[in-house]
Specification:
about 230 residues; alpha/beta; 6-stranded parallel sheet
């Protein structure tokens, strides 16, 4: 089948990982941040060109205020410390989601990372924060209407370029940790023909061997895109 250009991961299981160890959910989220850090490094070393991580959905605001605040604090810390590693590994940072609604201090860090890594071209790291795929599709539709795009000019290619992922390729491989078998409003358009792998492994335990195994399984699959082999 070849090697996937775009790998997307739904990082699930932080809370259950912590609960099974008698720890707080915040400890689980901290371990999840560490897993994201090593996964970005592993992805660039393995030759993946686009990596998308689902960090915080538009629906996650419904969680208890303490947990949301903890997640935002961790995200702020993560963004602040991540710049040297991105530059060292020639990784471009790209935010997926709606900036509006994110705390201003985090918006500032997101914009700074995007600006300071805009020249990097070894891998693009898409971090989905305040992201929902249905909202993304609605926002793309609004953009086309606002720009008075002639209806006959609207096609799949134009619509895809209007999405938050822009010119990034479609998702080839979608991985979900934590044992659940759903895509949770993540990259619905972009994952139309993605190969999906679900793992029972909780996200904090995910590492380079899990990623390599998923890549190996991907290479064994046959993708037909609605056609015949």
């Amino acid at each position: 089948m070849g090697f996937p250009q775009h790998v997307a991961i739904i990082m699930d299981g932080n809370g259950r990982w912590a609960s099974e160890r008698g720890r707080s959910r915040s400890k689980g989220h901290k371990a999840g941040v560490d897993a994201a850090d090593r996964t970005v490094e592993a992805a660039v070393e393995l030759g993946i060109k686009h990596l998308s991580l689902y960090a915080f959905s538009t629906e996650n605001w419904k969680r208890p205020a303490f947990e949301v605040n903890t997640l935002m604090a961790m995200l702020r810390m993560y963004l602040k410390m991540f710049l040297p590693k991105l530059l060292k590994n020639n990784i471009r940072f790209h935010h997926l989601g709606l900036l509006k609604g994110i705390p201003p201090s985090i918006q500032k860090e997101i914009k700074a990372l995007e600006h300071k890594t805009a020249h990097c071209d070894r891998m693009t790291f898409h971090l989905a924060v305040n992201y929902g795929s249905r909202l993304e599709i609605v926002e793309a539709t609004k953009s086309l209407i606002k720009n008075q795009t002639p209806i006959d000019d609207i096609n799949e290619d134009l619509f895809q370029r209007t999405l938050w992922t822009g010119t990034a390729p479609n998702v080839d491989l979608l991985i979900r940790t934590g044992g659940d078998n759903r895509i949770s409003n993540f990259l619905l358009w972009q994952s139309a023909y993605a190969e999906i792998i679900t793992l029972d492994t909780y996200w904090p335990d995910f590492g380079i061997l899990h990623l390599q195994n998923c890549l190996n399984e991907f290479e064994q699959r046959e993708r037909r895109f609605g056609g015949l082999a």
